[in-house]
């Protein structure tokens, strides 16, 4: 097995046993990026020089006796998390040359643990999208079939891990932006509980649902990376005041051997409509496998879950319109050279700097928050959000986790939905429920399905939703499943 095929833990073990050096691992990944990423386009910025410098430093630290959890591990970071010395664009022309003066807390923590940042990965502009087609830096392609999307908005992060262009990556999830690309690319993606990981340094999209989380080759890698980035942070007042030990999730899932005593809820009324029949059969088979591992499976009702997409797409544009107001052509970011007065500075800089999906969400959100419409739209959406949250809390009185597909179908063709924003928004149908309630959710590869129009089998993901701040349970369920069926041995052919 070549170095780039190793998991995070396998790489760490090899570094500890001095089978290879951090420089060798990093060089292997950088060479692979040079060879394949011109086609995949998973990275916006490759930080080759700084990555090799960090790798040399990691080898020196290890030679001096240091052994931290990510020492010498090459990692990719979604380009909406700030990084000192590496530009942070959010895949937008408006931030094309932005060099942050500070690291996001998530980035700071992985650096302190010894990680090597290979570069910044592509995404839908400001994380607005489900396909990574809304990027000012070109479309990312799915490594399994380069005519198809990798999902979004963390499409670059998922594609990089799936194509072995990074050992592991950091993504962000607002309404499915880690889970859907993880499902489409056949890797593991974890949406963390709201408040489990600091949002400091994450360029805001929807402040009430934005979270940072790992995308990895397997569940154990995701658990380890979560432990490193999780925990309290006085720079983010929404972050839970809980101390987290860096290896605590890995220890918990390693001790779980089967699923006896675990009850899983399946909202069949919610997931039955609109799901591709082959995808549904793959999901049903994975549920049977979880039962064979000792889990009890029961049907549950989530009557308000069907309202989650319209609720989300009132709340999200409203918060987007507020958060994107800071990009005004004056303080930082793109400034139009055509401006002749103050109005032009605002209008032309924003008009030329933002892409069409960002503009669409700003306009929808501004309308929903405007005088005379706030109560009818935004306030009403928040009320239904509360009902959805209460409904999920009630369900978790009798079950330990909830199972749904991640997506109703496998990855679609590039360009297939680009001119239909409603279709794009409906991509989030099974994922926004957990986002609105602030719950953790795992996207786990469970099989493959051949699309109606295509010859290549594409990955299918199972979503496992857990109680608030109970990432340990859903990771344990995923780890037990991987113990009997692990799709990692099947790789995309580049």
Your description of this structure?
With 494 residues, the protein is of the alpha/beta class. The protein has two domains: 3-264 and 398-489, Amidase signature (AS) enzymes (Alpha-Beta Complex); 306-378, no CATH class. Helices cover 39% and strands 13% of the residues. The chain contains 17 helices and eleven strands. It has an eleven-stranded mixed β-sheet with strand order 1-3-2-4-6-5-10-11-9-7-8, sandwiched between helices. A hairpin with an 8-residue loop joins β10 and β11 (458-466).
Compile the SSE list and pairings.
Blueprint: H1 8-16, H2 22-40, E1 43-46, H3 48-63, E2 74-78, H4 105-112, E3 116-121, H5 155-162, E4 168-173, H6 179-185, E5 188-191, E6 211-216, H7 219-229, H8 248-255, E7 263-266, H9 268-271, H10 277-292, E8 296-299, H11 308-323, H12 342-353, H13 356-369, H14 375-395, E9 401-405, H15 421-426, H16 432-437, E10 441-449, E11 458-466, H17 471-484
Parallel strand pairs: 2-3, 2-4, 7-8, 7-9
Antiparallel strand pairs: 1-3, 4-6, 5-6, 5-10, 9-11, 10-11
Keywords:
11-stranded mixed sheet; 2 domains; Amidase signature (AS) enzymes; 494 residues; alpha/beta; globular; 17 helices
Provide the gyration radius in Å: 21 Å
| Main sheet specs | 11 strands, mixed
CATH homologous superfamily heading of the largest domain: Amidase signature (AS) domain
How many angstroms does the end-to-end distance come to? Answer: 16 Å
Number of strands: 11
Shape: globular
* Secondary structure: helix percent: 25-40%
Task: Tell me, rounded to a whole number, the average pLDDT.
Answer: 95
Instruction: Please state the second-level CATH architecture of the largest domain.
Output: Alpha-Beta Complex
Instruction: Note poorly predicted spans.
Output: none
- How would you write the strand order of the largest sheet? 1-3-2-4-6-5-10-11-9-7-8
């Amino acid at each position: 097995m070549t170095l780039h095929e190793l998991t995070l833990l396998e790489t760490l073990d090899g570094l500890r046993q001095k089978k290879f050096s951090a420089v060798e691992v990093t060089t292997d990944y950088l060479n692979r990026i040079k060879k394949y990423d011109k086609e995949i386009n998973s990275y916006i910025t490759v930080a080759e020089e700084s990555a090799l410098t960090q790798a040399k430093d990691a080898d020196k630290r290890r030679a001096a006796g240091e052994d931290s959890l990510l020492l010498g591990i090459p990692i990719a970071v979604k380009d909406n998390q700030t990084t000192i010395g590496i530009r942070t664009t959010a895949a937008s022309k408006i931030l094309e040359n932005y060099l942050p003066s500070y690291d996001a807390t998530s980035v700071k923590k992985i650096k302190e643990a010894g990680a090597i940042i290979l570069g910044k990965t592509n995404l839908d502009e400001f994380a607005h999208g489900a396909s990574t087609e809304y990027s000012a830096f070109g479309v990312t392609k799915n490594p399994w079939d380069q005519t198809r999307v990798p999902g979004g908005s963390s499409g670059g992060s998922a594609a990089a891990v799936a194509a072995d262009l990074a050992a592991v990556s950091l993504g962000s999830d607002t309404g499915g932006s880690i889970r859907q690309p993880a499902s489409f690319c056949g890797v593991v993606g974890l949406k963390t509980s709201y408040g489990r990981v600091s949002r400091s340094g994450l360029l805001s999209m929807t402040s009430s649902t934005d979270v940072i989380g790992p995308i990895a080759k397997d569940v154990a890698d995701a658990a380890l990376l979560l432990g490193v980035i999780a925990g309290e942070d006085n720079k983010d007042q929404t972050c839970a005041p809980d101390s987290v030990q860096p290896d605590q999730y890995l220890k918990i899932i390693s001790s779980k051997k089967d699923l006896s005593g675990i009850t899983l809820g399946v909202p069949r009324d919610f997931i039955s409509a609109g799901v591709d029949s082959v995808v549904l059969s793959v999901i049903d088979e994975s549920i049977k496998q979880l039962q064979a591992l000792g889990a009890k499976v029961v049907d549950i009702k989530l009557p308000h879950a069907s309202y989650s997409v319209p609720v989300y797409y009132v709340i999200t544009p409203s918060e987007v319109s507020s958060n994107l107001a800071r990009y005004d052509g004056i303080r930082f970011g793109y400034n139009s050279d055509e401006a002749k007065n103050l109005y032009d500075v605002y209008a032309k800089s924003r008009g030329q700097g933002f892409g069409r999906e960002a503009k669409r969400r700003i306009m929808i959100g501004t309308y929903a928050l405007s005088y005379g419409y706030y109560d009818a739209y935004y306030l009403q959406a928040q009320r239904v959000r509360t009902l959805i949250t209460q409904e999920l809390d009630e369900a978790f009185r009798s079950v330990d986790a909830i199972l749904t597909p991640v997506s109703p179908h496998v990855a679609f063709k590039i360009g297939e939905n680009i001119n239909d924003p409603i279709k794009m928004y409906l991509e989030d149908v099974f994922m926004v429920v957990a986002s609105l309630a602030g719950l953790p959710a795992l996207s786990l590869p469970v099989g493959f399905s051949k699309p109606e129009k295509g010859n290549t089998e594409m990955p299918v993901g199972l979503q496992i939703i857990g109680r608030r701040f109970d990432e340990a349970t859903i990771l344990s369920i995923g780890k037990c499943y991987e113990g009997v069926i692990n799709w990692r041995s099947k790789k995309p052919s580049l």
